[in-house]
Amino acid sequence: MPTMTQQSQKTLERQKLSLPEGHDKLLLHSCCAPCSGEVMETLIESGIDYSIFFYNPNIHPVKEYLIRKEENIRFAEKHNIPFIDCDYDTDNWFARAKGMEDEPEKGIRCTMCFDMRFERTALYAYEHGFSLISSSLGISRWKNMQQINDCGLRAAAHYPDIQYWDYNWRKHGGAVRMLEISKREEFYQQEYCGCVYSLRDSNRWRMSNGRDRIKLGVKFYSNAMDDESNQ
């Protein structure tokens, strides 16, 4: 009989996936390298044909946007995965966020943001021969998966031949491997969700708790993090 440890390890094993019936390739919206790393490796090990779609006009400022994008490009190139670099149309994002500046994280501003990114993903899929879309957004424990899936399903519903794949990327140890891959690859470690309002609120929280404001472009994942935590 398997021990509890063996059962736990089996539960955390990466599963070989198959695309939903009727689909032969996937357009994967990626929010950043740390979130997409595990998703990408799972798809590769499963032999699934996919492309990365990077559309994140919420990320502010442009310095942060470029760092996150370049990290994602670096990992995609390492695995020879096509990387589609979409517009950084921040004016459109700010126009849609107007009146929601003080909404809390996971509120209606985030719904708008997910809607906007999924709408562009679904449109690109429709125009370029993809029938299936998904996103790395839901792997983060800081996100509301139901909120994300609702936005993905809503965007796909605009097109008769587009389906949103609501696979739970956190399952089977996905969330654990996400961190392991981030350390192995020494990905840039972003310290806020992405938009100017999340940066503002994160800095407010840090300052009220006696911490320094976020410094952009200086913090990276590393295996040394484990050594420090064990000291």
Output the keywords.
single chain, alpha/beta, Rossmann fold, 9 helices
Give an overview in words:
This protein has nine helices and five strands, in the order H-E-H-E-H-E-H-H-E-H-E-H-H-H. By secondary structure, it is of the alpha/beta class. Residues 1-10 and 227-231 have low confidence and may be disordered. The chain has a five-stranded parallel sheet with strand order 3-2-1-4-5, sandwiched between helices. Strand 1, helix 2 and strand 2 form a beta-alpha-beta unit. The protein has one domain (23-229): 3-Layer(aba) Sandwich (Rossmann fold), CATH 3.40.50.620.
**What general outline do the C-alpha atoms trace?**
globular
Reported for the largest beta sheet, the result is: 5 strands, parallel
Helix content: 40-55%
Arithmetic mean pLDDT: 92
The CATH superfamily label reads HUPs
Low-pLDDT segments, ≥5 res: 1-10, 227-231
Spatial order of strands in the largest sheet = 3-2-1-4-5
Compact summary:
With 231 residues, the chain is an alpha/beta fold. The chain has helices at 4-11, 33-45, 62-78, 90-97, 108-127, 145-156, 174-185, 196-208, 224-229; strands spanning 26-29, 50-54, 83-85, 132-135, 163-164.
Topology diagram in text:
Layout: H1 4-11, E1 26-29, H2 33-45, E2 50-54, H3 62-78, E3 83-85, H4 90-97, H5 108-127, E4 132-135, H6 145-156, E5 163-164, H7 174-185, H8 196-208, H9 224-229
Helix pairs in contact: 2-3, 2-7, 5-6
